[in-house]
Amino acid sequence: MQELGFFTILFSAVFTNNILLTNYLGMCSFLAVSREVKASLGLGTAVFFVTAATTALNWVVYYRILVPLDLVYLRFIVFIVVIAAFVQLVEMIIERVSETLYQALGIFLPLITVNCAILGACLFMVIRDYTFGQACAYGLGAGLGWALAIMAMAGIRQRLSLRSRIPRGLEGPGIALIIAGTMALAFMGFNGMVSLN
Question: Which pTM was predicted?
Answer without folding.
Answer: 0.86
